[in-house]
Amino acid sequence: MHPLIQPPFNQHPHNETPEIQIPQHTTVIISEESHEASTNVDLYRGTLGDMERDAEIIEQKAPTWLIEFLIKNKIPAKEPVKVSFILKPHEGSELDELPNGNARLTANRMLRVRKILAYIVEKLELDQPSIPLTTSNNTTNNGAVNINGNSVTEPTNAKDNGGGSMTATQPSTECLEKALGDAEKNTDEGNEHDNTTGNNSQSTAAAEEERKNAMKPELWLELVCQDQILPPTMTLATIKSQIWKASGDLTMTYRLRMKSV
Fold first, then answer.
1. Helices (H), ranges, 73-131
2. Which residue blocks in 89-139 are alpha helix, DSSP H?
């Protein structure tokens, strides 16, 4: 690394980078990440005590931006890592495919499942069911939900695909408007008995909050990957490394949320 450590370079002020005593057995790893690979690849692995002996190896394996940051105090501009993925309807769901051949997409690796669900709702122009369905609490360690083999009810024009009894209800704007209209009617009737403006405001705010929650796509739509239901907060990066665990484009399917009969 001697050729790289030549003046002029910007030395960090001592008050910004005070000396820290780190144990010699501390593990030092230089790894490489690629959007085509499912996991990181270690380029160097050693301990702090080995770094002086392995200086030549570290010089070869360390990325240029790391040297520039440590020696020249230059923070590199890094493009966000993107993940390619494929969206298609879940088998037996009978939801439509995405229009205009947009099944293969690319997005920031930190994109969460709830944003993908909102995209699906927008592109397919889906109507929300009047009552959100719930999934089982059979979660795995990574937060995904296992799909059980029980008979299920799916609120769509689903057909029996041999996996069990299926009943279907068609979500529509009329059902949603009726449900919201009943909620508003009940709220108005309750407000007639309120004695203060504060109570009226609280009731209205509660009804509005309930309405907003009922409109969330994650309450009635779900993504599935490798037979696991993905939680709304999971990112593409986590899905690819913890659920998909394979090279190539990540594949996910979407369907209306299901519940055990």
1. 113-124
2. 113-124
**CB-based contact 30:43 (threshold 8 Å):** yes
Distance between CA atoms of residues 93 and 255, nearest Å: 6
DSSP 136: -
Of 248, 221, 220, 250, the C-alpha closest to 235 is 250
> Which position has the token pair 């090279």?
247
Closest CA to 89 of 80, 81, 99, 79: 99
Quick check: helix, strand or coil at residue 174?
A: helix
Count of CB atoms situated within 10 Å of the CB of 18: 8
pLDDT value, residue 178: 46
Positions in the chain short of pLDDT 50: 1, 132, 134-142, 148-180, 183-184, 187, 193-194, 196, 260-261
What are the structural domains, with CATH classification, of the chain?
A: 2-72 (no CATH), 82-166+216-260 (3.10.20.90)
CA separation (Å) from 223 to 93, 215, 260?
12, 17, 17
How far is it, in rounded angstroms, from Cα 174 to Cα 165? 27
Strand pairing report for 250-256 and 82-89:
parallel
Question: What's the rounded Cα separation, in Å, for the pair 251 and 85?
Answer: 6
Q: Which two tokens stand for residue 101?
A: 């051949």
What is the greatest pairwise CA distance in the chain? 83
Task: Round to whole Å and give the CA distance between 24 and 210.
Answer: 56
